[in-house]
Amino acid sequence: MARGGTGAVRFDGRAAVWRERRADESGEDLGQLSKGSLPEFLNLPPRSRKPREDGITHVLDRGLGLEEAKVLLEGTTPYVDVVKLGWGTAYLQAATGEKVAFYQSCDIAVTVGGTLFEIALAQGRLDKFLSWLRELKIGHLEISDGVRSLPLAEKLALVRELKADFRILVEVGSKLPEDRPRESRWGEEAEAVLAAGAWKVITEGRESGTSGSFFPTGAPREDLLERVVAAVGVENLLFEAPRKEQQCWFIRRYGPGVNLGNVFPGEVIPLETLRCGLRAETAAELSMPHEDRNEELPYGEWEICGGRTATWPSAWEDFGEAGGWPELPACWNLMGRPKQ
């Protein structure tokens, strides 16, 4: 592990470790997402099962028809955690209810775009908007102020009021370039909304990946992202990252269990290959042997979230002369010492 100047946790690929594909105490393979006929002969980074708190893949539905959604998500549903019905598309499609039911039948949570929330709030129609979500049995709600600024106190009051009925995602950042000064408050705002009861904080990136967390070129604004990670921890954030090169950056920086959003339906499996080190862009960090390490390291049991266990290398001396037990990527939810 390495840390940036702000103290934010950063994944160091050079210290990436392999795991042995063994079952945990419940008989589940922690890296296997389905009981199908997938091969199991490679050592890959661990992958949690749904419902996940880390490694979340949040998909952007830009107005798919019901049959389109079924076709595009065929074979990918174990890897999709949340679908956002983007912008106001849910308001314009007669089949929205059927589509929501389909996604939920696949164990995929559904939310609508934050812009729709903002419009309803601005028009004084928030109660009707929330009633509509309840009728659709949508259990996740995105609160944002990407178009129209919403005072933090009002945002916190909404989170506290609605957290009993919805799992709330709060977006920080604006879609408008003139709102750049607000970025200094991202960390403070993220801390406050999580304390009020939000589930995750979304960092603005838009469908284009050219605003909020990113420069107009699409390059990550590293200092800004490091500050918000340092404030609340990477596990509490969901980074909008629609482009492959952006997804690679987050996985290399924070590990394969980083939460990523605004993923296009056709990019779910390509993203999963990046998470697993099954693509050239991340293979060197996640799945390839390193010259300075013995492939046949002894293994031991490690604790992970929820009291479950995973099998990991228990001899670390090959990773550096200092020896000892190095810190593991926080977003992998592994503790920094062997299970007692």
Features:
TIM Barrel; 13 strands; 11 helices; disordered N terminus; alpha/beta; 340 residues; three-stranded antiparallel β-sheet; 16% strand; eight-stranded parallel β-sheet; disordered C terminus; globular
Helix/strand layout:
Layout: E1 2-3, E2 9-10, E3 57-61, H1 66-72, E4 82-85, H2 89-92, H3 96-105, E5 109-112, H4 114-122, H5 126-135, E6 140-143, H6 152-162, E7 167-172, H7 186-196, E8 200-203, H8 222-232, E9 237-240, H9 244-254, E10 260-263, H10 268-276, H11 280-286, E11 299-304, E12 309-313, E13 334-338
Parallel strand pairs: 3-4, 3-10, 4-5, 6-7, 7-8, 8-9, 9-10
Antiparallel strand pairs: 1-2, 11-12, 11-13
What fold name stands as the CATH topology of the domain at 57-285? Answer: TIM Barrel
Main sheet strand line-up: 5-4-3-10-9-8-7-6
Computed Rg: 20 Å
Distance between the termini: 23 Å
- What's the CATH architecture name of the domain at 57-285? Alpha-Beta Barrel
Query: In percent, how much strand structure appears in the residues?
Result: 15-25%
